[in-house]
Design goal:
With 156 residues, this protein is mainly β. The protein contains one helix and nine strands; from the N terminus they run ββββββαβββ. The chain starts with 9 loop residues before the first strand and ends with a strand.
């Protein structure tokens, strides 16, 4: 087997800090517990994107029986110039049972103690930001009691 080419570069894009409401469970479904978390406002700060998070997004989740949380978040950013950008973020969160129990109780848990990663895609019609439509980013997340912090890195 020949050697793989170098890995794609990860370029810092922004930090999204999102206020979250209480989790709502829809109950057990065939693949696990189906639930959602309403997303409130928040901030977007970074070298490439700055603005706010528009309240009203939703983080749909499936808590699988193997302990893995599947995440499908959908929300809107209002950038500093007023442009609106749709965000779709799909990923996974999991870790040791004792760490995930602390997280569920709202305790402070370092992002290094568990896995929380999402693949992020953007959609916009704003002329200054159409390059976002051709981009993918990886987010490293941290769940806190009343908010989520996502550090986004653009794939180069």
């Amino acid at each position: 087997m020949s050697a793989l080419p170098p890995a794609p570069e990860l370029v810092p894009l922004c930090r999204i800090t999102c206020e979250v409401d209480a989790l709502v469970s829809l109950g057990e479904a065939p693949c696990g517990e189906r639930r959602y978390v309403p997303l409130g406002g928040g901030t977007v700060e970074g070298p490439e994107l700055n603005g706010t998070l528009v309240p009203g997004g939703v983080d749909w989740q499936v808590q699988r029986k193997d302990g893995v949380l599947e995440i499908a978040a959908h929300y809107v950013l209002r950038l500093a110039d007023g442009s609106l950008v749709e965000v779709q973020s799909n990923g996974l969160r999991h870790g040791p049972a004792e760490v995930m129990a602390r997280l569920a109780r709202g305790e402070a848990v370092g992002s290094h103690e568990y896995f929380f990663r999402t693949l992020v895609r953007f959609t916009t019609g704003a002329p200054a930001w159409v390059h976002l439509n051709k981009m993918m980013a990886i987010a490293v997340g941290q769940r806190e009691a009343r908010r989520v912090v996502l550090d986004l890195y653009r794939l180069g």
